[in-house]
Amino acid sequence: MNEPAVPQRGSAEDERERIANERDRVADERDDIADQREATSDARDLLLDEKEKRLAALELRLDDRARSLRESVPDVVRRQQEAIDRSREVLQRAELRLERAEASLQRSRASIQRNDAEIQREVATSSQGEGVGAEATPGEPDASKGGSAKSKRR
User: Fold this and answer.
1) What is the phi-psi region of residue 133: left when phi exceeds 0, alpha when psi lies from -120 to 50, beta otherwise?
2) 10 Å Cβ neighbour count for 149?
3) In Å, how far are 14, 96, 97, 101 from 45, measured between CA atoms?
4) Taking Cα atoms as reference points, which of 133, 87, 117 lies closest to residue 16?
5) 27 and 114 in contact (C-beta within 8 Å)?
6) Which among 121, 100, 106, 99 is positioned nearest to 27, based on CA atoms?
7) pLDDT in tens, 94-147
């Protein structure tokens, strides 16, 4: 009578393992998409920074030319405010890059934790299998079980 309970427990464990593996796969895909989005955003920020540098250099050249032609140059206060506004925009983009980098770090840590949990599940599964009296050679998967859970996913 105890024999039917063992396959049911095994199938429930298999289902939990399958669900955990699927959840890890989905989380990894989500991390990949976020990394792609971050790389695209970083490239766009670099382009905007370069454009801003070119525009600032152009503004300086135009100011020099205006002085040489004795045309009116924007007042110092307005130019200072514009410089402050540009600096704030650069700072804001840098803060966004920092937030993305922190998010990427958190995703990396979560991935490491998922991998550690998967290893712990595999260790627990293999130690339960060894307790039943499996005759696998040390270091090699038991042929009757079809290898480890890791080799089944690949």
Assistant:
1) left
2) 19
3) 46, 10, 9, 14
4) 117
5) yes
6) 106
7) 999 999 999 999 999 999 999 999 999 999 999 887 765 545 455 555 544 444
Alpha carbon of 147 to those of 36, 41, 60, 72, 152: distances in Å?
34, 42, 69, 81, 7
Residue corresponding to tokens 């110092």? 76
Exposure class string for 97-109: b at 16+ Cβ within 10 A, else e:
eeebeeeeeebee
Which own/partner pairs from 84-87 qualify as long-range (CB within 8 Å, at least 24 positions apart)?
86/52, 86/56
Q: Which position has the token pair 């990394």?
A: 35
97, 42 Cβ separation under 8 angstroms: yes
Instruction: Quote the tokens at residue 79.
Output: 């130019």
Is the pTM higher than 0.85? The answer reads no
